[in-house]
Design a protein that fits this description.
369 residues, alpha/beta, Rossmann fold, two-stranded antiparallel ribbon, 12 helices, 8 strands, SGNH_plant_lipase-like, signal, lipid metabolism, CUTIN SYNTHASE2, hydrolase activity, acting on ester bonds
Amino acid sequence: MTNSVALASWLILVLSFVMAISTTRVEAARAFFVFGDSLVDNGNNNYLATTARADSPPYGIDTPSRRPTGRFSNGKNIPDFISDALGSEPTLPYLSPELQGNRLLVGANFASAGIGILNDTGIQFINIIRMYRQLEYFQEYQSRLADLVGTDEAQRIVSEALVLITVGGNDFVNNYYVVPISARSRQFSLPDYVKYLISEYRKILMRLYEVGARKVLVTGTGPLGCVPAELAMRSTNGECAAELQRAAGLYNPQLVQMIKGLNSELGANVFIAANTQKQTNDFISNPGAYGFTTSKIACCGQGPYNGLGLCTVASNLCPNRDVYAFWDPFHPSERANGIITDMILNGSPSYMSPMNLSSLLALDTATRT
Ligand SMILES: *[C@@H]1O[C@H](CO)[C@@H](O)[C@H](O)[C@H]1NC(C)=O
Ligand SMILES: *[C@@H]1O[C@H](CO)[C@@H](O)[C@H](O)[C@H]1NC(C)=O
């Protein structure tokens, strides 16, 4: 009897100690803000009248609830894996009614499937949150945060936060190349279009800096021509679609250069660039090395490579999502997202410039008092 009481109080002591540690950790965890397109949308489009959505089965089939969340994945997406690395809960979509009170301290996700760098990208999806609007919401968020913790504390939280921005792929697939002869492709040659995109993206990143972001992870586009959708629509025998590969090949190095220029202008490594094209290329050229049986066929879809149309309950669905690099015609599987995030965290300078995310976060912790 006494023994079990002693054991019980010992357990309570240990438990409260563990809880104290984990509470401290939650409070100390860095806030996380996410901007961009469907690769990083955590469900904002669920709240909008748009066709760009992932809120019906089998999306989310590998989440604990097995229910769709609005993420374009069978399970976690890249922001979720980054939240894990930060020791935080996943970010809530900014439009979620649950984003209230202390949950604001975790950060917020402003991303919206279908958007691009340009306002005219994704017009076919009608009601989506374009970049300028995501940045307006970020300012609105900051005033809500200031109401909660005060202006100085809100500013500190934002300046120490990690920011992820993933945008640009749609400016090719849902703009320049959307119809045989799009307005943008009549206006610009591909090299000139890429230059224009980079100069508009630079303005967006500058704006992000002006509204308080100081640790920004910028991802490039993947190998656009190799996704199952493009293999189905533009490839004759399974080779990556040349024109889109050329677009990604022009865009990604210029993005890295632009970021280098921004950092030197600002006199600090505010931005780090992830070479997601190289990262994804690795497992597209050698899927077996990463435990994938295919990087050409989507797990969920129909037609050649399961690359046509949308992923719905009526689509083909693979039994084991972990052996597919692509979940649907455009988006990586949960396992691929995890591999990409590992490269972002720990990759060498050929993947991450000027440094990887672990180094960026460690550097910052060292200067925090
Ligand atoms: C996009 O639209 C917003 C709102 O109309 C405008 O302020 C912004 O300048 C536009 N951006 C570009 C690149 O045209
Ligand atoms: C990237 O991150 C790891 C920490 O996980 C670090 O040890 C390593 O040196 C970094 N790699 C490079 C090449 O910067």
